[in-house]
Amino acid sequence: MIPFNIPPLAGNELLYIKEAVEAHKISGDEAFTKKCNQWIE
Question: Which residues contact 28 (CB under 8 A, 6 or more apart)?
Protein backbone atom coordinates (compact mmCIF):
# COMPACT_ATOMS: atom_id res chain seq x y z
CA MET A 1 0.00 0.00 0.00
CA ILE A 2 1.23 3.50 -0.85
CA PRO A 3 0.98 5.84 2.20
CA PHE A 4 -0.57 8.91 0.51
CA ASN A 5 -1.30 10.74 3.78
CA ILE A 6 2.21 10.51 5.21
CA PRO A 7 4.61 13.25 4.07
CA PRO A 8 7.93 11.87 2.84
CA LEU A 9 10.92 12.97 4.90
CA ALA A 10 14.31 12.25 3.38
CA GLY A 11 16.65 14.48 5.35
CA ASN A 12 16.58 17.78 7.17
CA GLU A 13 13.09 18.96 6.19
CA LEU A 14 11.86 19.45 9.76
CA LEU A 15 15.01 21.36 10.69
CA TYR A 16 14.57 23.65 7.67
CA ILE A 17 10.89 24.27 8.45
CA LYS A 18 11.80 25.16 12.04
CA GLU A 19 14.55 27.50 10.82
CA ALA A 20 12.22 29.30 8.40
CA VAL A 21 9.44 29.70 10.98
CA GLU A 22 11.82 31.00 13.66
CA ALA A 23 13.25 33.52 11.19
CA HIS A 24 9.70 34.63 10.22
CA LYS A 25 10.61 33.89 6.58
CA ILE A 26 7.94 31.46 5.39
CA SER A 27 7.09 33.05 2.04
CA GLY A 28 8.66 35.03 -0.74
CA ASP A 29 12.14 35.13 -2.16
CA GLU A 30 14.16 34.15 0.87
CA ALA A 31 17.04 31.70 1.31
CA PHE A 32 15.06 28.46 0.96
CA THR A 33 13.30 29.68 -2.18
CA LYS A 34 16.69 30.42 -3.71
CA LYS A 35 18.03 27.00 -2.67
CA CYS A 36 15.03 25.30 -4.28
CA ASN A 37 15.41 27.29 -7.48
CA GLN A 38 19.11 26.39 -7.71
CA TRP A 39 18.33 22.72 -7.11
CA ILE A 40 15.64 22.70 -9.83
CA GLU A 41 17.96 24.43 -12.33
Answer: none
**Side chain identity at 6, as an amino acid letter?**
I
35 secondary structure, DSSP code: H
Question: What gap in Å lies between CA 15 and CA 13, rounded to an integer?
Answer: 5
In 3D space, the residue among 18, 39, 37 whose CA is nearest the CA of residue 29 turns out to be: 37
- Judged by DSSP in three states, 14 sits in helix
What is the C-alpha end-to-end distance of the chain, expressed in Å? 33
pTM, full prediction: 0.61
Who wins on pLDDT, 2 or 23? 23
